[in-house]
Structure formats: C-alpha cells, structure tokens
Design brief:
With about 350 residues, the chain is an alpha/beta fold. The protein is built from 14 helices and five strands.
Length: about 350
Amino acid sequence: MRTGIFIKITRPDRRRLEAITRDRNSSQKQVWRANIVLLSADGVGTNEIMRQTGTSKTCVWRWQQRFMDEGVDGLLRDKTRPSRIPGHGPEVAERVVALTLADPPTETTHWTADLMARASSISASAVRRIWKAHGLQPHRCRQFKLSNDPNFVTKLRDVVGLYVDPPAHAIVLSVDEKSQIQALDRSQPGLPLKKGRLGTMTHDYKRHGTTTLFAALNVLDGTVIGRNMQRHRHQELIRFLNAIGAEIPVGKIIHVILDNYAAHKHPNVRAWLDRHPRFVFHFTPTSCSWLNAVEGFFAKLSRRRLKRGVFRSVVDLQAAINRFVAETNADPKPFSWKANPDKIIAAVRRGHQVLDSIH
C-alpha cells in the first residue's frame, strides 16, 4: 500500500459498501470501487487489490484517495470532465429559438433539425439540445376545435352533472353510433409475431361491406347495449331506442346523452320522445364529441379489435363486434368523470380570446 494511505471505515460506511457489493442492481464500477475500499480497510496490499478487482495501480490509488476525501458518496458519482469542444453561447440559442418561432424559408410547413442546422450554422444535435431545453417540438402539432355553441356552458354543466351526480332511481346512457365500420380482408396472409420480428399484415385490403354500431354506455356500471345496423338514419335510431327501452326495467327514467347529429333531432325522433316520456335527451355542445362517454368505448373497440382485424364478410365483422361487447359486459368498469367543468370553461374562453386576437 502507498505510504501515507490509511483507510479506516466506520461501521455504517462498511454496511453501505457491503450492501453495494451485494446488490444485483448496482453498477459494476460502483461494486469494484467499494471492493477497493473494503480490501484497503482490511489491510490488503495494492497488488492483491489489483488482482482481485481487475484494476490498475493508479485506479486503486485514485479511489482510495477519493474515499478519504469524500467518503462513500464520492464512490457513487463520476467527476464531470470538460468537453473538448467549446459550447455555444446564449446568443446561438436565442437565434435558434427565434428562427423556430418563425416560418421556415423553404417550401415546407415546419422546421427540421437538419434544416435549422443549415440555417444557424451549428450541428443538428446542438439544435435538438436547444429545442429540448426550451420545450420546442416543431415536428409535432396538436389538433383542436373550439365549440361555438351559444349554450356551451349550460350544456356542459348539464352533461357533466349527469356523470358526477346522476339522478336517483334513473339510468344515464351515453349513446352514439359508429358508422361505416368496414369489413376489411387482407389481400395476403400476414406473418405472426415472433422473437425479434414484428407481426406483419399487408397494407392493401379487400372491402366486404360496412356496418354501423349503435351503442349505449351505462355510465353507472359500465355495461354497453349494442346493435349492428346497416345504416344510421333516424329510423335506425328509433329502433335502437326501442331496444334500450326493452332492456331497461319499467319505471326507471332514462337520461340519454347524445351529440348534435341531424338524425338525433329529426321530427320523427321528437315525436317518438313525446310518446315515451321516460326518455330524456341531453345534447352535448357542438364540436364536443369528447364529452360523450361512449366515444371512449368506440376508441377501445377500434384499437383492440377493428384496426388489425381480418373480416371476410359483414357477418364476421358483426359477430366480432358482438363478442367484444359481450366481453366488455362480462367485466364492466363504471365511467368516472375527472375533469373540472370550471377549468374546461375557462380554457375554452381563453382559446376564443386568443383566436379573436389573432384574427
């Protein structure tokens, strides 16, 4: 051991070092650093420490000195080394941010890292670091649609009130139709998933017809009433409402949440409502399909069953949809509304103010 090196380990430090050597999740460099210190404290010579840890003499000396200076914490971190390449000054970042917020000079809709690198005379990796530091993502774009419904606040509070505090002795149903569901058959069979390879399917397909799914989601227990029909006119809606009435126990008021599709407000539908007083319609604000809870079920159906499905006929498609509805009803999950309506109203008002200021 070097002259002047004397390592004495306290009992808590020894427990920490031994825990590092035993932990399977510890990095190897931390393990051999801890072993160097433990062997040094036990009086083992430098050559023997080198042999047991597989390190050089200067490495052993370095970590002995680091422990003497900084303790166990000094073994768990690496000292940073300055880069050989000088960093860019703040004026470079300001120029990149200013260019990013402006339109690109070429005939393109947004900046890319390579395009910005050429425009600002820096590397593409430096551009990405600046974008990340300033929270800029020019390659991404979020879609939005603000409702222009004059009764937006009233309708929003009405629908959210049904979700959060449904009326006693009543059923709340979120109703909508998913139209034009295509029965798509692939032109060639795909390959199954295997280790190291994704499953495959052809990009082209054969159409075998379409169907429309009428669905009513019970927000209280999460069950779904579904019917497949050929079209989505007001006639089919009335047939579906009759099917709902046949399944709901007599005497219960049925609150139905709908969007503003024309068939939902057809005179024949209104006349049907007059003859069935236990049905009460609640319309969402215009351009607010996200407020209808059944849209979540439709998204789940598309993602898990329809997107990669292979259907050789409309009958196969309808049978698959019916099985999915049955599986959903076998393990239902009640719908839970989390968003604060006051925050939604404030956000919509801010959006209208921004649009009014721009235009």
